[in-house]
């Protein structure tokens, strides 16, 4: 059959009947035919398989323990026997009347806020110092970061023998200077301050690294422009450097705050929560209630409270820092 417009006779494969291009290529090839629906479904299922390990880990190590803890918090289980009965919100009501729990919550906020503030000040100062071209800065950075790689239990034991009354290194120095020994761990105020200090010493290197990363990825053209405009050192830091470090500041604050609020090892090793319950954090108090008082249901309720507390505080801090006016 002849084309009505050009009069040309279209080429056709004599065996398959498929139309051909002028050069003899099959015209049906490359006309936008995608993969079949079955193949697309198979490809989508294959991609989803890559998410499976992460989903399994999330369910096994986060979702299931959380739901299990919520369930146990509604019972009077002692943690050892199979017998347990539903008590509703009785464990949560007990938290409101537990005087020790109130002190524990206060301690937890002191550890969280105190450690966070101290680590930001020291971490940023060290980052600014070690970002300069000074001799041996790589070695100094490594030494400062090294404690973060040590288990908190080991760090706690080391500093326990620094502040120990009879043979502690600090009291030995004080005796050599003609001063009286101090029973550091017999005083609740001293004990809380020691815990904050040791926790900050261990993890200040993490804050330093975060701020160093921010300083080294900073737009130097902005800094140089400020110097050309005659900005002094403090003015340049406050109006240029600090606003550009806002993402690093947020990351460091959130990580330090979460670590401080769930503090356990350091408290357990240094003071054991004493004297009395005076230095317990929420995490160590959960252990005391569970193992010593054999009240797993109440301990689970406190654990749920801690989870909600950390989630709310983290959300509020993120939201608050996002609203800060970092501009000059």
Q: What is this structure's SSE topology?
A:
Elements: H1 37-49, H2 52-72, H3 90-97, H4 99-131, H5 137-145, H6 152-163, H7 169-176, H8 188-216, H9 220-228, H10 233-244, H11 246-261, H12 265-270, H13 282-292, H14 296-323
Helix pairs in contact: 2-14, 3-14, 4-8, 4-11, 8-11, 11-14, 13-14
Largest sheet: none
Q: List unreliable stretches of 5+ residues.
A: none
CATH superfamily heading of the largest domain: MetI-like
Name of the CATH architecture of the largest domain: Orthogonal Bundle
Amino-to-carboxy terminus distance: 78 Å
State the helical fraction. Answer: 55-70%
**Mean pLDDT, nearest integer?**
86
The overall number of domains is 2
Radius of gyration: 32 Å
| Count of beta strands | 0
What CATH first level of the largest domain would be assigned?
Mainly Alpha
- Beta-strand portion reads under 5%
């Amino acid at each position: 059959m002849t084309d009505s417009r050009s009069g040309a006779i279209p080429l056709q494969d004599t065996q398959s009947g498929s139309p051909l291009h002028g050069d003899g290529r099959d015209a049906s090839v490359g006309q936008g035919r995608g993969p079949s629906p079955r193949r697309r479904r198979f490809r989508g299922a294959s991609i989803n398989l890559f998410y499976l390990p992460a989903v399994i880990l999330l369910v096994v190590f986060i979702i299931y323990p959380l739901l299990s803890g919520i369930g146990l918090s509604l019972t009077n289980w002692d943690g050892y026997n199979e017998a347990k009965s539903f008590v509703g919100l009785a464990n949560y009501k007990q938290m409101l009347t537990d005087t020790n729990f109130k002190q524990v919550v206060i301690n937890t906020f002191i550890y969280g806020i105190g450690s966070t503030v101290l680590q930001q000040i020291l971490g940023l100062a060290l980052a600014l110092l070690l970002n300069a071209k000074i001799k041996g800065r790589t070695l100094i950075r490594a030494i400062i970061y090294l404690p973060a790689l040590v288990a908190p239990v080991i760090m706690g034991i080391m500093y326990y023998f620094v502040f120990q009354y009879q043979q502690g290194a600090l009291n030995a120095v004080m005796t050599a200077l003609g001063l009286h020994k101090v029973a550091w761990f017999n005083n609740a105020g001293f004990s809380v301050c020691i815990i904050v200090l040791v926790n900050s010493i261990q993890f200040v290197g993490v804050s330093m690294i975060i701020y160093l990363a921010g300083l080294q990825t900073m737009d130097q053209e902005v800094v140089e422009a400020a110097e050309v405009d005659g900005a002094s050192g403090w003015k340049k830091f406050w109006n240029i450097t600090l606003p550009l470090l806002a993402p690093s500041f947020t990351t460091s604050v959130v990580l330090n705050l979460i670590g401080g609020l769930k503090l356990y090892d350091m408290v357990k090793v240094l003071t054991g929560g004493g004297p009395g319950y005076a230095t317990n954090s929420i995490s160590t108090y959960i252990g005391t209630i569970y193992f010593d008082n054999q009240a797993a249901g109440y301990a689970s309720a406190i654990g749920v409270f801690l989870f909600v507390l950390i989630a709310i505080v983290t959300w509020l801090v993120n939201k608050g820092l996002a609203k800060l006016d970092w501009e000059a």
